[in-house]
Amino acid sequence: MLPSMMMSPSIRLLRWYEFANCVMKKTKSPETCSGGPGVRMQFSGAGKPLIKFRHCERSIYSFSVPQCCPLCQGDMGSTRIEDAPISISDPFSNGHQEKCSFLLKPTRGTFLREYDGKSDLHVGLTNTRGVVYNYNEHGIQRDEAGWEQSLSVPLVQPSMFGLMDQWDKYLEDFSASPAWLPHRYEENHYNCSSFALTFINCILAMEGKEQLDKREFTEKYVVPRTRLASKYIMLYRAIQERGFHVADHPDPVTSPS
């Protein structure tokens, strides 16, 4: 029997920075900036990195280091270590290469190209082969493509061989439950988040671990990623539009340790 829990509404954002409040108010669900319930958070890039360098006493971001400074047109040569270019990794990952993970992506389009901060987000769970199980108005979907640019939360430590061996069976059996038939789907109360977070709590219960509520899951595993992603998107689009971005304040994007 599934553990009882209030189900989550679909995640809808007004702005990236409203994500935390929006989800914590509307979602009941499951770090360090940690990974999932048992692993440290790691971001694996799915796109080109950003480059940060200093010149004219300013932090400048671009997709590559230019020969001349875009501000003063001076030579980019520098002998100071602190001015050396730094690569900032893409916070998104190819969800189909992530095993046993919780994934988050726009319902339509991608984060970097189409996402406008107002459209819906969709979540899913991967098996050990990168197939993404997710729930929508058509019932359970098993996607082998379409999640190539996602935010990922690893749910299983690499050393947990027993759970890893059974993960696919658990996920398939859970997905076959009548609880996830198409007619039961309800956009605001019984949806993709309900499916993913109920499964996570089932696994935790089976492992004899304390279940996670929506606030804890959101604060520890989702918000750190969305904050980093929002900053990355802002920089990426600014560079795409102008060729570079200049910052006077502390670094807007910092790769997690």
Could you characterize what this model shows?
This is MKRN2 opposite strand protein. It holds the Pfam family DUF4796_C. InterPro entries: MKRN2OS-like, MKRN2OS-like_C, MKRN2OS-like_N. Strand 2 and strand 3 form a beta hairpin. It is built from 4 helices and 10 strands. The protein starts with 10 loop residues before the first strand and ends in a 10-residue tail after the last strand. Strands 1, 5, 6, 7, 8 and 9 form a 6-stranded antiparallel beta sheet that branches. A 4-stranded antiparallel beta sheet has the order 4-2-3-10. It has 2 domains: 168 residues, no CATH class; 56 residues, no CATH class. It has 257 residues and is α+β, with helices and mostly antiparallel strands.
Break the fold down into its secondary structure elements and pairings.
Layout: E1 11-12, H1 19-26, E2 50-55, E3 58-62, E4 86-88, E5 101-106, E6 120-126, E7 132-136, E8 139-143, E9 151-154, H2 161-175, H3 192-206, H4 214-242, E10 245-247
Antiparallel strand pairs: 1-6, 2-3, 2-4, 3-10, 5-6, 5-9, 6-7, 7-8
Helix pairs in contact: 1-4
Q: Which descriptor suits the 3D outline?
A: elongated
| Percentage of residues in helical conformation | 25-40%
Compute the average pLDDT: 80
Structural class call reads alpha+beta
How many distinct helices? 4
Pick out the low-confidence regions. Answer: 1-35, 38-46
Largest sheet: 6 strands, antiparallel
Distance between the termini: 39 Å
Gyration radius, in Å:
20 Å
Number of domains: 2
What is the string of helix and strand elements?
A: EHEEEEEEEEHHHE
* Number of E-type strands: 10
User: Beta-sheet strand percentage?
Assistant: 15-25%
